[in-house]
Specification:
It contains 27 helices and 13 strands. With 751 residues, the chain is an alpha/beta fold. A hairpin with a 4-residue loop joins strand 5 and strand 6. The protein binds adenosine monophosphate, manganese (II) ion and zinc ion (ZN). Pfam families: DNA_pol_A_exo1, HRDC, PMC2NT. InterPro entries: 3'-5'_exonuclease_dom, Exosome-assoc_fac_Rrp6_N, HRDC-like_sf, HRDC_dom, HRDC_dom_sf, RNaseH-like_sf, RNaseH_sf, Rrp6-like. One of its GO terms (cellular component) is nucleoplasm.
Length: 751
């Protein structure tokens, strides 16, 4: 805004144009929103992949047009992503083959952008995110208003009281089965399997066949196979077989006659909080051909989250189950939930499917998701609100979506809200099916698509958040901040402190220490405890309580040699030539090939150090010494491949059965800690033996500057190297560690 006058028509506040072409935020938002709506509409009109698209694509004109527009869009998206400091697909197109990878990048960028927006909104309102809202009329015993909702402007139409949840008794205390927050993979909570075609795997492991009359090697092999099989079963989806063999029920093949819902006021709504009532409900459900389901969940004051309520609607009645009270009994509903002849109608079941598994061991076989139906119908908006407005002319208000659903007794207002979430759903189910039918010219193929997508959702397995030594880097990469070595160590220590405490106290990580506060502490590295408190406004209770521990962590981080790191990738560092990497004492100019060699040395040293092969700095070159000093402050990125008592699963790779990480982590996570320790010991011993004997590989390394080496490494290192250079996919490397660089380094492993 310029102070000089430019004959503007408006008065005082006028001259400040919000940004070129827009007089204020509203104008900007309006234009932006218009653009988004238009784009969404247009994309909804595009021919669907699979059927129409293939037809259109047979015309060269269409193909050319798509190619040009596609390029433009990709370029535009790439620029946006780069602007936000995200990885983008333009830079490294050659290595990104699949649509899936691109899609992941988009999701990742969306996360980054939304996280930023979230932080900004939090800061603007002075409120911690994920704080539950409460109904206006609700009178909690004591509301701690103070700093938790300062700046809250009470004159907004709807007033939500923010409630410090310490006023609510922790439902976890009453759970018959304690919550398992341990850093181990989730094991299905299912002991009885109704409607089974394939029975549950038996829990007992068969005896080791050594005792049988077979050669020991064969016995071992058999045992391994059996154990593997048993473990695979243990971690597989209990209804995978049934779901994969499920065919769409006949009733979905014809156009339905929509059956109108009963008026909400005239429908009985039963609150279920005893086993007796639950059993009665289960029997009622078993006699239906379809019913609607929804859940309400709380995630702020619990590490894994708690399902607080289940709403069920039949054509006649509504039910609300107190799932805090009946948590351990909910499994009996598997009888109707896995019955393949009963359609279970959900809206947006992604989370519901996971919550049912996580909290109750309940699975769904034969589901119809109206959210997917809305998407197939290209309605533009796919929310339940929108469907209710469209089909039932009901103005729902999602105001309690984020309410604290743990409170008991539930206020009438919240019960009504919960009931409305499923009350209309069966009618919506009828209507979307009719529309899908009409959209497909009286065929059931669109319904089939929706039903299949719903089935795929049912196959989803709940995955527990696992802490690895890499987890903090995942979060760090999402923030744009570049940290020096001390800040990064602080961030790592805070991250692991937070994870540990959250698991122990059964609180969400956001409750223990929100991301933006953690970033701030790591960035500022306060010398005094008071400084840490000052980074957190409002100060989370556990931060206040453990302020001395936190102070020690920051002190520890400050003792690390200060290195300016321009880019940090999961423990690797590659440096750009303009940064003074080695502090004031080192004035040498670093050339490109030096850098190449240096980064290579860093990696080699990571490996060699791990292998205790070197350590004698007297024999090191200058570059190696530099690498050594850098090394001190970072974790070995290959540690996950080495024996350890911790469980390591890389988040990106753990679902991809083709990756080494998947294979290795899978093998390891299945072993008990004890066994792992024993194995690690045995391996250590074997390694020493192997070293003494031979098994030494010579590693010949060529850099653009010429060959380095040969370097002697043990077989373990050689193996790791082959993993790093061969089968490791670029997607699992950090961005700079791409194929091109690996090629340039041109590693050859020679025995
Ligand atoms: P719904 O299916 O809309 O009834 O939502 C079910 C649960 O999902 C709620 O109880 C919340 O715990 C959670 N939830 C829904 N919407 C959001 C959101 N926008 N942000 C965070 N959690 C949400
Ligand atoms: Mn829902
Ligand atoms: Zn709901």
């Amino acid at each position: 805004s310029g102070p000089e006058s430019k004959n503007e028509p408006d008065t005082e506040s006028d001259t400040a144009e919000f940004c070129p072409g827009f007089k204020d935020v509203d104008a900007f938002v309006k234009r932006g929103l218009g653009g988004v709506v238009a784009a969404t509409k247009a994309s909804g009109l595009l021919p669907q992949a699979g059927d129409e698209f293939d037809f259109y694509r047979s015309f060269p004109g269409f193909q050319d047009f798509c190619a040009v527009q596609g390029e433009r869009l990709l370029h535009c998206m790439s620029q946006l992503m780069q602007h936000h400091g995200c990885r983008s697909f333009m830079k490294d197109r050659s290595k990104l083959t699949g649509l899936e990878e691109r899609f992941d990048l988009v999701i990742e960028s969306n996360d980054v952008i939304l996280e930023k927006v979230g932080i900004m909104l939090d800061e603007a309102s002075g409120v911690t995110r994920s704080q539950p809202v409460m109904p206006a009329g609700y009178q909690p015993p004591r509301i701690v208003v103070s700093s938790w909702n300062r700046k809250g402007n009470d004159h907004s139409g709807e007033t939500f009281h923010l409630l410090h949840a310490k006023n609510i008794q922790r439902p976890q205390l009453k759970f018959k089965e304690k919550v398992d927050n341990s850093n181990t993979p989730f094991v299905a909570k299912i002991f009885v399997k109704p409607n089974a075609i394939k029975p549950l795997p038996s829990c007992e492991l068969t005896e080791r066949p050594e005792d049988l009359d077979v050669p020991p090697a064969l016995a071992d092999f058999i045992h391994q196979l059996r154990t593997q099989e048993h473990m695979d079963d243990m971690f597989s989806h209990p209804y995978q077989y049934e779901l994969e063999h499920l065919v769409m029920p006949e009733i979905l093949r014809s156009r339905p006659d929509p059956q109108l819902y009963k008026p909400l006021a005239e429908t009985s709504c039963t609150f279920i909080e005893t086993l007796e009532d639950l059993v009665a409900l289960n029997e009622k459900l078993a006699k239906t051909t379809e019913f609607a389901v929804d859940l309400e969940h709380h995630s702020y004051r619990s590490f894994l989250g708690i399902t607080c309520l289940m709403q069920i609607s039949t054509r006649e009645e509504d039910f609300i189950i107190d799932t805090l009270e009946l948590r351990s009994e909910m499994y009996i509903l598997n009888e109707s939930f896995t019955d393949p002849t009963i359609v279970k109608v959900f809206h947006g079941a992604d989370s519901d499917i996971e919550w049912l598994q996580k909290d109750f061991g309940v699975y769904v076989v034969n589901m119809f998701d109206t959210h997917h139906a809305a998407r197939s119908l290209n309605l533009g908006r796919n929310s339940l609100d929108h469907l209710l407005k469209l089909y039932c002319s009901v103005d729902s208000n999602k105001r309690y979506q984020l309410a604290d659903w743990r409170i008991r007794p539930l206020p009438e207002e919240m019960l009504k809200y919960a009931q409305a979430d499923t009350h209309y759903l069966l009618y919506v189910y009828d209507r979307v099916r009719a529309d899908l039918f009409d959209a497909a010219n009286g065929q059931s193929n669109l319904i089939q698509v929706v039903w299949s997508k719903s089935k795929d959702l049912c196959l989803k397995k709940y995955v527990k958040p696992i802490f690895t030594e890499e987890s903090y880097m995942e979060l760090h990469r999402k923030q744009k901040k570049s940290f020096n070595s001390q800040q990064l160590v602080a961030f790592r220590l805070l991250f692991s402190w937070r994870d540990k405490l959250a698991r122990e106290e059964d609180e969400s990580t956001g409750y223990v220490l929100p991301n933006h506060m953690m970033m701030k502490i790591a960035e500022e590295l306060p010398k005094e405890p008071q400084g840490i408190i000052a980074c957190c406004n409002p100060t989370p209770p556990l931060v206040r309580q453990q302020i001395n521990e936190l102070h020690q962590l920051i002190k520890q981080a400050r003792e690390i040699p200060l290195l300016k790191v321009s880019e940090v990738l999961s423990g690797f560092i590659l440096c750009s030539s303009e940064s003074t990497l080695f502090g004031p004492h080192d004035t040498s100019h670093v050339s490109e090939s030096d850098l190449m060699e240096l980064s290579l040395q860093v990696i080699l040293l990571f490996l060699l150090k791990e292998d205790e092969g070197v350590g004698n700095s007297g024999h090191l070159t200058v570059a190696q010494q530099k690498a050594c000093s850098i090394l001190e402050s970072f974790e070995n990125p290959f540690r996950m491949y080495l024996p350890s008592k911790d469980i390591h699963i890389s988040k990106n790779a753990k679902y991809d059965p083709s990756t080494k990480i998947y294979e290795i982590s899978n093998r390891w996570k299945l072993q008990s800690i004890e066994k792992q320790q024993k194995e690690a010991q045995a391996k250590q011993e074997a390694k020493k033996q192997a070293k003494k004997a031979k098994g030494i590989y010579r590693l010949e390394v060529c850099t653009p500057a010429g060959p380095v080496g040969p370097i002697k490494v043990s077989c373990v290192v050689g193996l790791i190297f082959s993993v790093a250079c061969g089968s490791w996919k670029p997607a699992h490397c950090r961005q700079e560690w791409d194929e091109a660089r690996l090629k340039r380094i041109n590693l050859r492993i020679k025995e």
